[in-house]
Amino acid sequence: MKKTTLGKGLESLIPKADKPRSMVNEIDITEIYPNPDQPRKIFDEEALAELTDSIRRNGIIQPIVLAKAEDGYVIIAGERRWRAAGLAGLRRVPAVVREITRESEQMELALIENIQREDLGALELARAYKNLMETHGYRQEDVAEVVGKSRSAVANTIRLLGLPSRVIEALELKQITEGHARCLIGLDEKKAVEILIKIIENNLSVRETEKLASKKEKPEVEKAQPSENVFLLSLKSEMEEFFKTQVEIKSRKDGGTIEIKYTNNDELDRIIKTIRGELS
C-alpha cells in the first residue's frame, strides 16, 4: 500500500486564516451529498437541533470540506454542519474543495477529522479501521500511522467488533461504556451476556465489571487463581511495543511494579534514551 503521512490532520483539511478568502466557495446545498466512507453513522438529534438553531442565528462559521465528484461534491468534513444548514433553510454553504489524489484518501481524511473532533464512538472507530483494512488493504500498522495511534491501540479497538451482538447493541445504545465492553473481550458469549445483564441491572462500574470478568469458574476443590487484568494485558502489550523489549506488570492491593527487561548495556542505553525522548 502506498502510504501518505497525514499527521497535519485538520490543518491539511482547512486553509489557514491568512490564505486568500477565494479558497472558500459558496456551494449550493443540493449539489452536496454525504461521504459513503463517513465513519460516524449516528447523529445525536438533540445536538443537531442545537447546531441548527446556532446556524440559523449566526450562519456557518467554519467551512465544510468537500471533494469534487462526477455529479457534485462529496463531504470530507462537516456533515453535521451540512445537515443542520439544510434544516435551517440555507440554500448555499461555505466550503473548501479539496483535491483527492488517492481513492483511500477520502476515507483517511474523514476518519482523521472525526477522531480529532472526538466525534466517533468506539464501534464507529473500529468499523472505520476495519473498512480501511478490508477495502484498501491497510495493515494495522498503516492505520495506526494514519490516525496517530499505536498499533496495539488500533488492534484493541478492532477487537470490540468480536464481542457478542448483544454486547455490541448495548454499547451502541449507550447502556454500557467502552470500558465495560473491553472487560468482556475474550469471554465466551454466555458469560459475556451474563455479566452484561448484571452491569445494566446493577449499574456496575468498570472496575466492578473487570473483577467479574476476571473470575474463572473452577471446581470447588481447586483454589481460585487470579487472572490478569484485561487493561494490564493491553498496557503490557503497548509498552513492549514501545520499548521493544519484555515488560512485566505486577499488581498488588496497594499498588504494583513495572519491570522493563534488558539483556545488555546497549539495550539498557536504548531504553533510557527512549524514556528521555532522545530517540526519533
UniProtKB/TrEMBL annotation:
Write down the SUPFAM superfamilies for this protein, in alphabetical order. Answer: KorB DNA-binding domain-like (SSF109709), ParB/Sulfiredoxin (SSF110849)
Keywords from the UniProt entry: Chromosome partition, DNA-binding
Q: Does the keyword DNA-binding apply?
A: yes
InterPro entries on file:
Chromosome_partition/occlusion, HTH_ParB/Spo0J, ParB/RepB/Spo0J, ParB/Sulfiredoxin_sf, ParB_dimer_C, ParB_N
Output the Pfam families linked to this UniProt entry.
HTH_ParB, ParB_C, ParB_N
- Residues in domain ParB-like N-terminal? 25-115
Supply one GO molecular-function term.
DNA binding
Please give the superkingdom of this protein's source. Bacteria
Where in this chain does the entry annotate a coiled-coil region? none
Give an example GO biological process.
Answer: chromosome segregation
Please provide, in alphabetical order, the Gene Ontology terms of the cellular component aspect for this entry.
chromosome
Name recorded for this polypeptide:
ParB family chromosome partitioning protein
